[in-house]
Amino acid sequence: MHGYFELALLGMWEREFSVEGRTMTPGLVRLALRRTVRDVKHVEAVRPRRARGLVREVYRQVERDFGMLAPPIALHSASPEVLAAAWLMLRESLVAGGAASRAGKEAVAAAVSAANSCPYCVEVHAMALGTLGEPAAAAAIEAGDTAAIPDRGLRALTAWAGGAGRLPADVPEDAAAEFTAVAVAFHYLNRVVSVFLGPSPLPEAVPPTARAKAKAVLGFLLKPGAAPPAGQALDLLPAAPGPKPGDTLSDAFSRAAAAIEAAGERSVPSRVRELVRRELKAWDGKPPGLSRAWVEPVLAELPAEERAPGRIALLTAKSAYQVTAADIAALSPERTDDRGVVELVSWAALTAAVAAGDRLRPRREDFPGRNGDDRSGEDVASGKGLTGD
């Protein structure tokens, strides 16, 4: 019995933690939250007490700025550079202060997650949105009915994030860049979460009658505090070419993408990378559905020994919820180490996320009357400076 609610399930939260009184015993809460790394499937996440070097520094920043050691970040820890890349994208897009409101960014995160059929991320970020004063919007996103969101601005924003509309014209360009970055980050995170985590942040042991109370506890823990300054995580990874000088957001994504591209070169066969890029270029972004029949004909051009990693890469890119334990087990022995598995999935996830971001990217005509070189989310979403191509 473990997960976000180990503390609550043991009955300790009633004695040590008060949602209404907003008091808690930080050591006990942190201990319970750190144990969520056990929820990771297929690979073993580094336990906090064993973390060293870059992994320890990323864990420290995640707990400091996000409030807990989030499993969607910790699952990358078998590959320290990819771990840093995942955190850099999440922190600088969603967590750090900027022009866009945190509620708006959480709404984008939840809407993208719903479009990608990632119930884990929908539940987490809808809860966070609810704690920011938008419970009706959170409930509508969880129910799959964004048209029911009362606030017109949030309704339009979530429609755009879900791929069903254009970004509202009254969104300033700097905020548009941040919303686009959040969308790209969650197109990435949804895919790796679907592969390595279960469908809910709540442990399976939580009975239906206790879910409301358990979600109240998690919602309290997820409520964002004061936004930390942007750019403080940049030094986790070396600088990469691509961003405009002084553009912290594009700098963060360029560093992250360079690290993940290098991981792909280590762990993903070149023919698989070429195949995935070609498939994504022709894809409209719509999930292929429940059937996996589309995968095998595409894999036919690969040599037999590369079809197992090719299958995982293609599924991760287009329908990560279809990756199974059998797919992981089918990898050849030299590809089944935890670092290689994480890097395979991570590379495919980011390649798909960049393609998704390009479809979402606001165009110049979305900002009538604006001049100059501002490209809104272009550097983040178009792939320029992100994929190493």
UniProtKB/TrEMBL annotation:
Domain Carboxymuconolactone decarboxylase-like: start-end pairs: 83-133
Amino acid composition bias (Basic and acidic residues), ranges on this chain: 360-378
Region (Disordered): 360-389
Matching SUPFAM superfamilies: AhpD-like
Gene3D superfamilies noted in UniProt: AhpD-like
A Pfam family per the record: CMD
Full protein name: Alkyl hydroperoxide reductase AhpD
Organism (species): Amycolatopsis bullii
